[in-house]
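Case study: biotin--[biotin carboxyl-carrier protein] ligase.
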Amino acid sequence: MIDDAPLLDRSARSAARLDWRAESSSTNQDLVSAAADPDWPDLSVIATDRQTAGRGRLDRTWTTPAGSGLAVSVLLRPAVPIDRLGWIPLIAGLAVARAADSLIPGADVAVKWPNDVLVGGRKLSGILSELTADGSVVVGAGINTAATPDELPGDAATSLAIAGATTTEPDAVLSAYLEALVPLYRDFVDAGGDATASGVRAAVTERCSTVGSRIRLEVPGGRVVLGTARGIDADGRLVVQPHDGSGLLPVSAGDVTHVRPDAG
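Here is what the predicted structure looks like once written out:
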């Protein structure tokens, strides 16, 4: 169903079902609520360019003033072990990065573990995945499209328009994202959730600016670790070498800040 929507012909070809909402409080919540309904199959999509009460990681808010961004949530029903689902937000982030590549020629686009996409070191997009009651996954992406500097939270953020995209039109952005996401997701599922065998692990690691960086990591519970990110393991966890000399630390969740070499 596409009511009061921009033309989304290209995007619709990549989705099993595509619903455009003129406004949504949260596309993720809308899709989580719909997930138990069999009328919403694998690769169903809800999208809007006006989100009023979206959530990011760590209960941060993510709202979209009308026309300034794209909030898109995808329902996934992967038949893979539950301990491999940590790859889903990383796959989505890689898909956003590849979409940005196609829309901003020559841009420096990177994935920041676990859920951000950066252009020139500034945040273009954030990812949030949620497990539903029936074991499906809803993965949401918030992409700053036509936002101006005044509409963004400070100098740490950017948009497609600011970065020089050739277009910020909804169908172009949404279709670029879905056309990148679907093959990555299908390769991952076809490999039984084996990110190494599917090539997903190598692709994400290559694009992830966190790997090899000095970081400040705050893990759930408030513990802070200073160290160097050494890689991403088979379950999608960031592997950190703490600077205190302790052993390698695999982390499945946390807030990461990249630390400049001269920042101590």
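For the exam, be able to explain this: The longest strand covers residues 122-131.
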